[in-house]
Design a protein that fits this description.
alpha/beta, Aspartate Aminotransferase, domain 1, Aspartate Aminotransferase, domain 2, 2 domains, 3-stranded antiparallel sheet, globular
Amino acid sequence: MKLSKLASEIAESPTLALNEQARLLRERGEAVIHLGIGEPKNKTPINAILASAAKLSSGEVKYTPADGTPALKKAIIRYTEENYNRLVAPENVIVTNGAKQSLFNIFYSILNPQDEVIVLAPYWVSYPEIIKMCLGRPVIVTPQDGTFVPTFDEIERAVTSYTRAIIVNSPNNPSGAVYPPELIEKLVEFCERKGIFMVCDDIYHKLVFDGKEAAPAYRFTKRDVENSYVIVVNGVAKVYGMTGFRVGWVVAPRQLVRVMTNVTAQTTSGVSPVSQAAAEGALNGMQNVVEAIRLQIQNNREVLLQEMRTFNGARLIKPEGTFYALPDLRAFNSNSVEISSFLLKKAMVVTVPGKEFGMEGHIRLSISGSVKDVTEGIARIKWALDPTSPNEIYIGDKKMVRDWL
């Protein structure tokens, strides 16, 4: 069978592949702990359920405008004003099938073949693949100081005449790092001076700890939305725990939104009205659900840090946001794919190889589940890798003895 060269070169999503492996193991009755999946374990907010149920009950589940329903766009405009101190018009907003489609539509709309996009490592696994699908070239910038935050000088050195955009994800998936305001300010000034788009993936922007704030890029520009090079991507998946509804959005200049709307009209036609109603309900409803999710994850983060203190050989930079951690396990094996495969086989713990995020030798852990998942998951990982940990452990109802160290 002859297939497209472009499509054949796109990598499989490692997180979705691991989710499938975990599902098959659970179906066989294995006591799998999933520290790979990126979604909170909360129930859908009640206002989202009621709003989507009302839309279903009406029987009016038909096509919507390709750029989103007026009611949801109104809620997004208010959200933008409250969280970014920025007034935007309906023509500056487009609703998409999740923030992932937002990113695809942005790059499809701004890139010509061989245009470059600066991607800051560690990065979300889909960034390079989406850029390549849009015929662009991802240019990876990796911090050289052992942290998860590149310096402005490192970023500036990577910029060429082909650079079309820089994508910034703070709080960061997979590391939990929050970029300092000084770096965001320098990037905004630089992008607007050079005419480079600054694509801000703000999907985790409220999930921060220790009184931290993920400084929004809009704070550092005096330009209005029409003349700014800042593009903001957001959605309800993470901060509201509504991953399955697939609703994201973009705030951008009208000309870009018009082009993105044409792309949507010729591909997906738009977002399900039921999902849009749910997102509208979440944005307009009680916001204590966001704080409840944040507090639960912050508590899990504290449990993780406590458990990691006795993990000899592992190095962890404290996550400041999101629900991820990216421990360095190069003391055990510099090949993160081998580490993740080993941990799944021996300890029945799902993790994601750091190689997929541009950080070989690390693994990504999701701490969005229960405290029990975090404590037992880390205990199993220590048992499998750390020779100073106890030699025996129970996995489910099976007593396991380590015989490989």
